[in-house]
Design brief:
The complex is a heterodimer of chains A (209) and B (103). The relative contact order of chain A is 0.18. Chain A has eight helices and one strand. The longest helix of chain A has 33 residues, at 47-79. With 209 residues, chain A is mainly alpha-helical. Chain B is α+β, with helices and mostly antiparallel strands. Chain B is 61% helix and 18% strand. Chain B has six helices and three strands; from the N terminus they run αααβααββα. Chain B has a three-stranded antiparallel sheet. In chain B, 30% of the residues are buried. Classes of the chains: A mainly alpha (209), B alpha+beta (103). Chain A binds chain B through residues 1-2, 5, 8-13, 15, 81-82, 84-91, 205-209, and chain B through 21-22, 25-26, 28-41, 46, 69, 72-76, 78, 91, 94-95, 98.
């Protein structure tokens, strides 16, 4: 009985992933990040401009992580909530409030630091980030029981390793990694969204009545 | 009467009803949820869900707010602090009761 209640309490968290919108929006944001890296390879920046560019990159990454939930909620308000209902999730308590910000800063520092410091082997950057993403997907998969997140964890880790050993330059490696991961998330989210729209009725114009 | 059975008789009857247990469990995990979400997750009819929500509201476990999302009416439900405490207590009692039930 206790484990049945635990499984029942998992369902509202699983609902966040039911429509695929979280992956779709995250995929788009990562693709934008990949574009940022790609453009960086086209615009040669050095000296103070180069340092400023990397600081902007770190701020962009942190901003992406922080704002992603807002973007996802916006899309859900349009598509999901009118169809299958609205859920407001509890705000993290205590130290967990800072968890997302710390994770965003950690990833931003890892990526920004690995590409800005010439002394570090630049091919470690996508490996480290792939590991961070993989860990995040694995944790979420375990927490909410969404099986495709396990697949995405493997994809993130594999992509990080492949890009890391590919011999690409730092910026191109990051562009390739984020572009590939963004594409995979976009496909996963898109397929899930299509299934969700097919299996749920269109919203009733009269609402609940 | 066996210890476990005695424990079962003291369970909160407002929460212990199957449909209300599902409603309270879902609401415990979140800040709030609307009627449409609860309807889908519980599989109850609109009338049935409404009557269970009213019972939970009368017991002080659930707060119900009626508003609008744009022009569409929306009913939002959330567990009160009393409801959260009652559910926590219910879970503890249930675990104890199940552990003490004879094989």
């Amino acid at each position: 009985m206790g484990s049945d209640l635990d499984r029942l309490m998992q369902r509202p968290y699983r609902y966040w992933y039911e429509d695929g919108i979280a992956e779709l929006v995250t995929g788009i944001l990562l693709s934008l990040l990949a574009l940022f890296y790609y453009l960086d390879t086209r615009l040669v920046m050095s000296g103070p401009l180069g340092i400023a560019g990397h600081l902007v990159l770190v701020a962009f990454i942190v901003g992406l992580f922080i704002s992603s939930r807002w973007w996802i909620n916006k899309v859900k308000q349009w598509i999901t909530y009118p169809r299958t209902g609205y859920v407001a999730y509890r705000r993290p308590q205590g130290w967990q409030r800072w968890r997302r910000l710390l994770l965003a800063m950690l990833v931003g520092a890892m990526v920004g630091g690995a590409t800005a410091l010439a002394s570090l082997p630049v091919y470690w950057s996508p490996v480290l980030v792939g590991l961070a993403f993989s860990g995040t997907f694995l944790y979420q998969a375990w927490r909410v029981g969404v099986l495709r997140l396990y697949t995405l964890a493997l994809v993130a880790l594999g992509a990080g390793i492949v890009v890391g050993i590919s011999g690409l330059t730092a910026m191109m490696a990051n562009a390739a990694f984020f572009g590939f991961l963004g594409l995979c998330l976009g496909i996963s989210g898109g397929v899930t969204l299509a299934r969700y729209l097919h299996s749920t009725p269109a919203p009733d114009p009269a609402g609940e009545e | 009467m066996a210890e476990g059975l005695r424990e079962v008789t003291t369970l909160d009857r407002v929460i212990h009803e199957p449909a209300r247990l599902v409603i309270v469990t879902l609401l415990y995990a979140v800040e709030s949820a609307d009627f449409v979400y609860l309807l889908r997750e519980t599989g109850l009819t609109k009338g049935n869900l409404s009557s269970h929500l009213v019972k939970l509201e009368e017991a002080g476990y659930v707060a119900i707010e009626k508003g609008y999302r744009g022009k569409i009416p929306q009913t939002t439900c959330r567990l009160t602090e009393a409801g959260r405490e009652a559910f926590r207590l219910y879970r503890e009692q249930l675990k104890r009761a199940v552990a003490r039930l004879p094989e």
